[in-house]
Amino acid sequence: MAPAVSTVALIQADLDREEDPWDLPELQDTGVKWRDLDSKGKGKRVCISVLKLVALLGLLYLFVCSLDILSQGFQLVGGKAAGDIFQDNEVLSNPLAGLVIGVLVTLLVQSSSTSSSIVVSMVSSGLLQVSTAVPIIMGTNIGTSITNTVVAMTQAGDRSKFRRAFAGATVHDFFNWLSVLVLLPLEAATGYLYRLTELIVRSFNIESGDNAPALLNVITDPLTHSIIELDESVISGIATGDPEAKNKSLIKTWCSTMKNTTLQNVTIVNCTSAPCWEWKNVTEIINIQKCHHIFVDTNLADLAVGLILLAMSLVVLCGCLIFIVKLLNSMLKGQVASVIKKIINTDFPFPFSWVTGYLAIMVGAGMTFIVQSSSVFTSAITPLVGIGVISIERAYPLSLGSNIGTTTTAILAAMASPGETLTNSLQIALVHLFFNVSGILLWYVLPFMRVPIVLAKALGNVTASYRWFAIFYILFCFFFIPLLVFGLSLAGLPALLGVLLPHHRANARRKAQRLSYDTSAHRRSLVLIHITLSDEGKENNLLYPPRESKTSCALSELRLLMTNCMTGIQTRDSPDHSANTANKEQKQISLNSLNSLRIDGYPKTSSKVT
Description:
Elements: H1 5-16, H2 39-87, H3 89-92, H4 95-109, H5 112-124, H6 130-143, H7 146-152, H8 159-190, H9 192-203, H10 217-227, H11 233-239, E1 254-267, E2 277-290, H12 302-331, H13 334-345, H14 355-371, H15 374-387, H16 392-415, H17 422-443, H18 451-465, H19 468-491, H20 493-500, H21 502-513, E3 515-518, E4 526-535, E5 538-544, E6 566-572, E7 586-590, E8 598-601, E9 605-609
Antiparallel strand pairs: 1-2, 3-9, 4-5, 4-6, 6-7, 8-9
Helix pairs in contact: 2-4, 2-10, 2-11, 2-12, 4-5, 4-6, 4-19, 5-6, 5-17, 6-8, 6-17, 7-8, 7-15, 8-15, 8-16, 8-17, 8-18, 9-17, 14-16, 15-16, 16-17, 19-20
């Protein structure tokens, strides 16, 4: 007997229903159930589970250490270049250039804490104003989000896992980019973050305190310091203009030193009359204990050691991630996975469901404070998103919390600054904090404003179909765009505006092309158009005579890029006409007033913008 029509329709509907790729998968337990095991089998399973847990903790430890070694390798390769970049104060005064420098330097040293500390040291030494440092701090926030994006690439073998992992990683990227797109222009126009943090710092009588607690470093330093140990003061010294720092190696040779100041008899150079000596306090550094890392006596260049560390740490990092994912897949199945997913992804009952996201932000901030690295925390949850334990909607507030947590250690470090530099150091640390808080207010508080989730899912769908696009995204967003904007910033503001504001260039070109003149009375009259481009106080004068055979002045080749560019247009008679130069009229106009320009010159020729 044939089934009823309704039954056929239901079966067909089930077949036609498409599975949502963003639904968390059910991790099925393929092993024997616990109740079906005998005593020996239960004991064996417990031992295997304990061994898996120990192996997972060991892999996480190696993963965190490899991230630390990776950061130090990048500092050896590009740390001195990062210090040199920070020396160019003229470039740093451009907010866009400052933003890009923050991104690039954080990419070079692979640590927002290091790049932020360089900025703080420059502000403390007076080489950089707090207002100038604000865009750089924004850039460090963007640069630090590349780590978990690269970590997501290790799950590219499975399309479904890669879709979720890459979206879970890039939701952090999109939050940082969107926050900068809104807050950087706002800061440039109003000084919002600068004024707010200045008010907070001046409102409280804050005194210097202890150094930031080293929680995770207590565990990881024994291993990382046995491999490499760096003198990070060299980078700060280069940034602050110390001439001796450029000749120093970043690789630390002496781990224990002592300063000894003595009163010595010093000879006066070029002395012309006796006495030719004087007493001075001379400070010398006495080396006490040598470091014990493996590169201390190799005499290799910083670049060579950095490349070795990069290769070694990347191999360990990728290996750890692969085994972590396999272990999690074997451990998080059946009832265990259901319990974990229910705890992490379930909201509080109505009407308090909105509280869950803010609790996740607090958890993310707390965990990041414990590990003292947002890169470590977000990189650790990325594989969990890939295998389906954490949803994108829950990974988003966790990532936002990590942005908050990474600023707390900077605040504590600023509190340890000397009294004379405490105010500026603390203000920069608070700028970092309130930048992230403002971003959360923009892109999380209102549910319909959680645009980063939508963008991350769209990018995840694209990369699942075209996995090469993930590499293109990383190179384009974190290298090509920052380098392009930085190069244009070095070229000057006109070039930067010409690329970033093409509509302004097109409008100026159209206005220039509409400039026409009537030469019916005197065909041989010549009109000279004098363009003065003001670029950083230097004037570049260009003379563009139109062709006599045409009745319109074609200025399409001119790049009138700046709104404050002043254009002088004057008329001059041709050589066979005698004319008094005093009768020539010259006018200075701005681009915005071209539509109402009318020029009357000698002889009776009329030029008008139509």
